[in-house]
Structures
1.
Amino acid sequence: MSELSAYEAGERTLFMGNEAIVRGALEAGVAVAAGYPGTPSSEIIENLARVAEAMDIYVEWSVNEKVALEVASSGSFAGLRSLAVMKQPGLNVASDYLLHLSGSGTRAGMVLVSADDPGALSSVNEGESRHYAKLMEVPLLEPGDFQEAREMTAWAFELSESIRNVVLLRTVTRLSHASGTVTVGEIPKREKKAFFKHDGFIIDPMEGVVMSPPVEWKHGQQQEKLKQAKALFEESPFNRYEGPDSPELLIITSSVCHLYCKEAVELLAQQERVGILKLGTTWPLPDNLVKRYMKEATSIFVVEEVLPFLEEEVKILAAECVGEIGEKFFFGKRNGYLPSTGEMNPDRVVAALSRILEVPYEGLEAAYAVRATEISFMGSPNREATFCPGCPHRASFWAINTALSMDNQNGFVCGDIGCYSMAVLSAGFSTLKTLHAMGSGTGVASGFGKLSRFGMEQPVVSVCGDSTFFHSAIPPLVNAIHNGSNMTLVVLDNSGTAMTGFQPHPGLASDAMGEAAASIDIAGVCRALGATVREGRAFEVLKTRETLFGLMEEEGVKVLVLKEACALSPDKKRTRAFEMSVEKERCLGEGCGCNRYCTRVFACPGLVWDKEEGRAKIDEVVCTGCGVCADICPVGAISRKEAIHG
């Protein structure tokens, strides 16, 4: 049994933030959990899957976040506590259904966890999920540390059941992926019996039809639920104040930012002048609580990640009750004391706080800071993001790039999110020319492929991964086929959701809990839709290039499925197809005429330039033996032979 479920009530242990959320869900008696993998949220579903059998929980990796929310809601409708998990762009995908779900309401407790990524540490955006709480009119909770992550998750289910609506729990990367001490509670033994009551009066919320109509009446009910939540928030233990009774400056903050605020106040030794109001229930605001502390302060400083969501709500409240609390000076993001981009950190808070309080502070000696800047720009090597040794994507993009170059019609590739997003960089030969949301590459290519009537004759190619294909590339592919677009889709099938940890998807024969599952054949789906389909191997780069030549000459929608497992996948660990070597006599180095093509352009980390020898060589520790470099060497100086496995 996983340690997450093994600890007894009262024990203290070290948990990652995501693990603390899982423990809280277990203590709440969660029965159904669904999500789509995305850093920093993935560990929540993964850890629940590990205890699914022992704890009698149904856990799945859904095809996308909208479906995950729908699956989780079915549990709530049938009387089971449920959890939906995703990262911040996934909430955009789920928002269509969330709008209806928040209107229809839920039954058993249902929590939606959205993991935001301030600073875009593992994303291509730092989108905010907090605004969805206000837009959808559902309560928003933000744990501020690891203990709260456990306790607040468990309480979120209680809150959901008390107001009969979904509750949004927002975490951030620095909470989800850091670790801290947590005292655990008790995991209850409760019967999990599912039954969907639907024969009652049509608008009975617990026994009637689950729907958002009649809209105006249901909308009114939804707003009443928010008032109930607001009343509970006034007394919530997740809202805490520390500091003097009448502070000169009141910091209002939430999430992990309150830790940065505490550190900043201590560094400046301003505990006698500054108070900190840490809010865990950030929407709707607990008005009376916030007013009580604003009234005692002269100025207000709002610290949050990323956009001024909390700041704007606090200012609205202050404007409404100015006669009660008096005029206040505000500092935050809107007047430039804090940036509205990137992660918050103690340095940013200290800089703003010292400016507000007119307290001098210098964290680093000026000479040290100057030297550090010099080293970062001049003394350290450029380490651009790159594909792993033996990554099939490097091979695929080499074939795509060379095919388009040799075709000489100025063709281009539309892409989206995944490891293969790095193909916008030199790692993928700068092949991608558009980069947006999951599945958007195919949607954009579908549009480009209809522009021949306006004189556009460039070949149009899109790429997506196998997990992305099921997540959101099928609808734009259907659109392209139905509308007669002229484009080629290359599916980079590396047998798993590789970017986030090899979670299974519908193309694989197992599910989130490790049980056998029906695998959906990508090529078969595309053929059934009416596309011209070819299949190949990513490492067969010359054959792939020729196949692409042929497909680009055909009209209509074409699909090339390139299969090759990720070099880091569990199936490929400690295995290699070939033993690679460089024939010194044939590698002419700088005198070859190829301008060190293998190490300068193809640039697999398993190929290195030997300065002393003046030629390429194989790094036997790093090389995975994919064999592709033997095909790309213009003089055939790199050879391969079948690896012998004992």
2.
Amino acid sequence: MPDIAAYGSWKSPITTELILSGAIGLGQVVLDDEDIYWLEMRPSEGGRMVIVKQSPETETDSQPEPVDVTPEGFSVRTLVHEYGGGAYLVNEGVVYFSNFFDQRIYRQDPGLKPQPITPEVEMRYADGCFDVTRNRIICVREDHTEVGEPVNAIVAVDATGKCEQDVIYQGSDFCSNPRVSPDGRSLCWLTWNHPNMPWDGTELYVARFNEQGRLGEPHLVAGNANESVFQPEWSPESVLHFVSDRTGWWNLWRAENGQLWQLTSRQSEFGKPQWAFGSGTYSFASEDLIACCYTDNDAWKIAMFHIPSKMLLGIDTPYSEMGRGDLKVGDGKIVFVGGAPSLPMSVVQIDLASSKWWELKKSNDLQIDEGYLSTAQPVEFPTENGQTAHAFYYPPMNLDFIGHVGETPPLLVKSHGGPTGSASTALDLGIQFWTSRGIGVLDVNYGGSTGYGREYRKRLDGSWGIVDVDDCCNAALHMVAQGKADPNRLAIDGGSAGGYTTLAALTFKQVFKAGASHYGVSDLEALAKETHKFESRYLDGLVGAYPESQDIYKERSPVNHTEMLSCPLILFQGLEDQIVPPNQSEMMFDAVRGKGIPTAYISFEGEQHGFRRSENIKRALEAELYFYSKVFGFDLADQIESVEIFNLPA
């Protein structure tokens, strides 16, 4: 029989040590002939990013082990747009990658040490493809050599590093997805300009190469300031395809003979916000067959799309989370990164002939009794203006404990980043850390989130700090009304944009009784002045043009209204964060501390936007639990390093 104990005080086997033991991040799948590559982020190695290679079965080894490609001393990560992505490519066994420590491109031939092929100057590279015809890499370059905004361009980099770089396109604020057609004759790419973000509006261009390898006159294929085009891709016979939300949902399209043809017509999303380079939700199995993933009723699905018949044939797998956009097809197989409520994010392979699937690599290999795991439950709840919004609820779950009769559990509401991101349904031990201790979790897809169409995504236009805050508050109150949460023990946390939503909810509403901001925005005006190029005009759409709308910026900045905040707050911050500078957290901490409200501030040397080192991930998770235990008054089952909490009543 389970023991009866107060919610929050349950003894859990899901410790931070367990969560971080062997835990890795997975992303950017690349196929090269029969070989499969992917990228691993390793907290145990200080957040180092390593390319891993899986070779096919052989007669002597039916399942060879994946091997590291990236040697020690290198980390495969680009800082273009600060968020990076698209940090490497492979051609005939030769790996080309951006090295985090100097942002140069390195060439790594099999069995040899990496050698730089770009100069040692302040330039960054991402999102490359290999131009086989001309033995060069075509990629996005971000030039930081001059004062002012960095300059983005598409450049050709000689694969040997012996020739000068050639700028083949420049003229827009941003560009991405340069892709050479299989016949070598054409290049496609995306552009967008301030104040748009790529999920607001992009333009898809195509141009032909001349004999010297330069581009002719660009031709606009699709897109405008109010249409988001995502992932242009060539078919094997060099017919251009792409994803567009011109119908209100990101669907597949085809451009042929000067005409555009809509391939899928679903209220589903075949695309995602392009925060990072190199993501993709579809790939060609043949000229007539596309493997794709898409959202449907709060979950991702994987399918084969037959172009001539326009039939979408589902593939039966347990995976419901593929939103990172890492899907590739080749050599009779689909490879993607996916997860499910009972399965961690993994690199998964599907055999096209049999539809059988298996995991090549898991983000963790832990075996945890299901009696300690809480499963995501989709929730649709009423919110402002007669609308509804979405969330995933994780009830407290621990086979060893139940709560006291008549006691309702604390609830932690999670506000995702972006704010165009979305809550994931994949097994997340960071969420199970809370639920297995008797604290419910509600992961909110507030208005502005991805996965529910352009109209839902646009709810946040001009209303950041209002719609997202209202939805998080209404989500929490909905759970209280359902008898699943204690109204006196409601907490909210979030990182980055989710940190802003957290701070705004704590400041401008009286629903939550505590909160945690992870590298969150407290001063919108300071962010508009100080943030990096990629997001420097993002707030134009979310808040209003600056400085014309300066009053709104001041009005919605929590740091300007701490007199309205009356509940405990803990803040976490990386000291090398270039996206949300440390002064955002420091200003908020000083203001709250000066007001006499219980507060704490923990900063991490060497961390940027998001925490990648094991010791810091551990500290942040445990410190937040410790903080709630003190302000909500429950005992901890484990010994946790204490946190200095200012203004905490004795």
